[in-house]
Design brief:
This protein is mainly alpha-helical. It is 66% helix and 0% strand. It has seven helices and no strands. It starts with a helix and ends with a helix.
Length: 120
């Protein structure tokens, strides 16, 4: 089941474009405040990555390509396990969650400053 979910997420960009989800309020924080949260743009970033549009993916959310890559490695691991293979990709990076939080918060601060400068 997890493999199917990962596969659907990784391939969603083939049948949905970032422009199609632009008008859908996906984030309650953004809907209520008008400001982006650290996770805003991840959906559009993933959709862009599915189409191999790296620059767009980074523009939507800088953490998106990293998360997309991690999910891809996870899906490949699940595939090998489903096939019964003893081979699998070692994904041991103990600081990954910390790095992800730093990237999410960093891009959020930059976007917030940019948003603040435009408003005032």
């Amino acid at each position: 089941m997890a493999f199917i979910a990962a596969l659907l997420i990784l391939s969603a960009g083939f049948w949905i474009t970032p422009a199609e989800v632009e008008s859908i309020p996906l984030c309650v924080f953004h809907f209520l405040t008008g400001w982006d949260c650290p996770g805003c743009g991840l959906t559009r970033s993933f959709l862009s990555m599915s189409r191999l549009h790296l620059v767009d993916a980074i523009r939507f959310n800088a953490a998106g390509p990293i998360l997309y890559g991690a999910l891809f490695v996870y899906a490949v691991n699940l595939w090998f396990r489903l096939l019964g293979s003893k081979r699998h990709i070692q994904f041991t990076f103990p600081f990954f969650p910390h790095l992800l939080v730093i990237i999410l918060m960093g891009q959020w601060v930059v976007k917030s400053i940019h948003h603040f400068m435009i408003e005032f």
